[in-house]
Amino acid sequence: MLTWRRPVSFVNARIATGRGIVSSLRIGSRILAIDERPRAGDLVVDLNGACVLPGLINAHDHLELNHYGPLKRRDCYQNASAWIDDLRPELQRDGAIRKNSAYPLAARLFIGGLKNVLAGATTVAHHNPFYRELGRWFPVRVVNRYGWAHSFLLERQPVGAHGEPGGDVRERCLATPAGVPFIVHASEGTDDEAAGELRRLDTLGCLRSNTVVVHGVAWTPGDWARVVARGASLIWCPASNLFLFGRTTPVPEFLDSDTAAGSRICLGSDSRVTGARDLLDELRVAAAATPTDSNALLRMVTTAPAGILKLRDSGRIVVGGPADLLVVPPNDKGPAEALLATSRRDVLLVTIAGRPVVGSPALRPVFGARRTAMRSIAVDGVERLAESRLARAIARCPIAEPGVECLSS
Ligand SMILES: [Zn+2]
Questions:
Q1: Do 369 and 233 reside in the same domain of the chain?
Q2: Ligand 1 centroid – CA 60 distance (Å)
Q3: Is 127 part of any domain?
Q4: What is the domain-level CATH number for residue 363?
Q5: Residue 350 and residue 262 share a domain
Q6: How far is the CA of 11 from the centre of ligand 1 (A)?
Q7: Are residues 349 and 228 in the same domain?
Q8: Are residues 361 and 256 in the same domain?
Q9: Pick from 142, 139, 144: nearest CA to 119
């Protein structure tokens, strides 16, 4: 039996590369060629006009919190602090929350990884400690070079799965090397206190070129000008903001205000405690919340987070880069519009380092060419192939992911 992995040549596709849209792509574990003819020995796959995008980057998640479902006790808050105050007593009192907290951390994190990979997010930035469990096999790449603090609100309060504190914002920021992103929640709310957190960051010397602020809901265009002047960046989580506050960061105004904004703003799903089901749903929330064009949104889940999170190899299709890809159904308006029309059940293929992780049964030969054992799973009522390792982990996980089940054992 042959044991080597064959290169795969995708043809008749619409492939979003840094140099425009092309129709063919050769991959091994890395991108081998763009817009070149297949070579002898390749598996040639006709994608019938399907769109190929770089694997998405989800710039913000709390991977261990995605199985709780949405949690709040009021319709609308003015500041995340009031939401936290509402939930803190419930952590001990509410039976469902306690049950969800009692699952092994590895299982809780796995559900976060599964959420991301099924939505074509091949890289995710986790906000909280980089738990030991994330260093073992995991469904997606997790950013592992980052500094973080939770927020000014929870500097001394427990926020991690083992009760780790949120951390002193100034100390943690100044301890983060300039070449590593420092990620912190700030201005998560609509009141004066939330608005004042930007000035507080700046006064403490924490608004630097590697500072990445999550939320910024209360910011004005003037605040954004200050962020730009310091070279800092924003992770936008519109679904979470709308859920808690009924409004979100005025990102379109920021995008209009300066040409560099497109590279300084990226999108994150946040966890499902407040956010969308996954990054694909989050993109639709972002599109509905703003008149932002689809290419700007595509940048917010590819090249922008790659720059902001200092991920040299991610977020673009370039020769020599890892073959982290997302294939979605055809769309006359092009790959960015195709992405906005895609839900996780529509995803045709996700590859990480050229390894098919989940895909349509029609793309079974790709699993064969890449020597990846597979099993059938159902995703929201549609049959999909998953690499065996992922399917086994789904079957073994004590936490069920709604809409996902193994079809073969
Ligand atoms: Zn968050």
A1: no
A2: 6
A3: yes
A4: 2.30.40.10
A5: no
A6: 39
A7: no
A8: no
A9: 139
Q: How many CA atoms within 13 Å lie on the side-chain side of 153? A: 18
- What's the gap in Å between 37 CA and the centre of ligand 1? 44
Rounded to the nearest angstrom, the distance between the alpha carbon of 174 and the centre of ligand 1 is 21
Cα 268 to averaged position of ligand 1 atoms, centre (Å): 9
- Count of all residues that appear for the chain in the document: 409
pLDDT of residue 241: 98
Same domain, 106 and 186: yes
- Name the domain boundary from 308, 329, 363: 308
* 247 part of a folded domain: yes
Q: Is 80 found in the same domain as 50?
A: no
Read off the amino acid at residue 285: V
- 237 CA → ligand 1 middle, Å: 8
Give the three-class secondary structure for 385: strand
Distance 247 CA to ligand 1 centre (A): 16
Q: Say how many Å lie between the CA of residue 241 and the centre of ligand 1.
A: 10
Report residue 132: phi and psi, to 5°. -50, -40
As a three-state string, the secondary structure of 320-354 is CCECCEEEECCCCCCHHHHHHCCCHHHCCEEEECC
Q: For the chain, percent helix, then strand, then coil, each to nearest 5? A: 35, 25, 45
Say how many Å lie between the CA of residue 38 and the centre of ligand 1: 44
- Domains identified in the chain, total number: 2
Q: Which of 283, 308, 333 is the last residue of a domain?
A: 308
Instruction: Say which CATH number the domain at 233 has.
Output: 3.20.20.140
Of the candidates 133, 87, 139, 88, the one whose C-alpha atom is nearest the C-alpha of residue 111 is: 139
Structural domain range at position 340: 8-55+315-406
10-residue stretch averages of pLDDT, the chain, 409 residues long: 82 94 98 97 98 98 96 95 92 92 97 98 97 95 98 95 96 98 98 97 98 98 96 98 97 87 94 98 93 90 98 95 98 96 98 98 98 97 98 98 90
Residues 358, 262, single domain; the answer is no
pLDDT, residue 320, reads: 97
First vs last Cα of the chain: how many Å apart?
A: 24
For the purposes of burial, counting CB atoms within 10 Å of the CB of 214, is it exposed (0-12), middle (13-18) or buried (19 or more)? buried
